[in-house]
Amino acid sequence: MCVFVPRCATDLCGALCRSLDLILRLLNEKQILGVCIQMLSVQPDTKPKGCAGCNRKIKDRYLLKALDKYWHEDCLKCACCDCRLGEVGSTLYTKANLILCRRDYLRLFGVTGNCAACSKLIPAFEMVMRAKDNVYHLDCFACQLCNQRFCVGDKFFLKNNMILCQTDYEEGLMKEGYAPQVR
To answer: Which residues form the LIM zinc-binding domain (predicted)?
Structure first.
């Protein structure tokens, strides 16, 4: 099994990146995807709650609730990039007691593949185009003869796993008499 492990900024994440054995073990552990982050206003007449991040009382006007725990807005951060998860969106990802943003979760644990046109690695978080079983970078999804890029709704043709525009398909049809699959 091949695992793409990027270089990360923090010591915690960097330690994971340096230990392939640990990463492989983590891949088999329980994971929670898409945990909801709730922003709540603190009621003045309630007892202050303790922050799961710093263990201090939350005296701010707002607090975050995630993973059945309460957090200061500054304390609920991605273990890799330190982004404030309450600002990034309303979900977080966790695995092996790491709290991660979506991008870092996919970088560390997402499935990657290779582009059918350029054969280069496609990161798990990158947008792609698909044609049958082939996956392409957005920039690589073009006619492989004339390099014409396709727009939404354009017809393209697939011949021997080559993407062709309608013009090149029709020229090839006239010359060789082939009939690729229309997509």
So the answer is: 49-111, 113-175
Which pair of structure tokens corresponds to residue 141?
């999804």
User: What burial letters (b/e) apply to 130-158, b meaning 16+ CB within 10 Å?
Assistant: ebeebbbbeebbbbbeeebeeeeeeebbb
Q: Starting at the edge strand that comes first in sequence, how are the strands of the sheet with 69-71 ordered?
A: 38-41, 62-66, 69-71
The CA distances from residue 91 to 76, 84, 155, 168, in Å, are 11, 11, 36, 45
Q: Is 160 left (phi over 0), alpha (psi -120 to 50) or beta?
A: left
CA angle 93, 18, 1 (to 5 degrees): 75
Close Cβ partners of 78 (under 8 Å, ≥ 6 residues apart):
85, 88, 92, 99, 100, 101, 104
Mean pLDDT score of the chain, rounded to an integer? 76
Please give the structure tokens belonging to residue 171.
């020229």
Angle (CA) 28 92 108, round 5°:
45
- pLDDT band of residue 179 (cuts 50, 70, 90) is low
| pTM listed for this prediction | 0.49
**177/170 Cα distance (integer angstroms):** 9
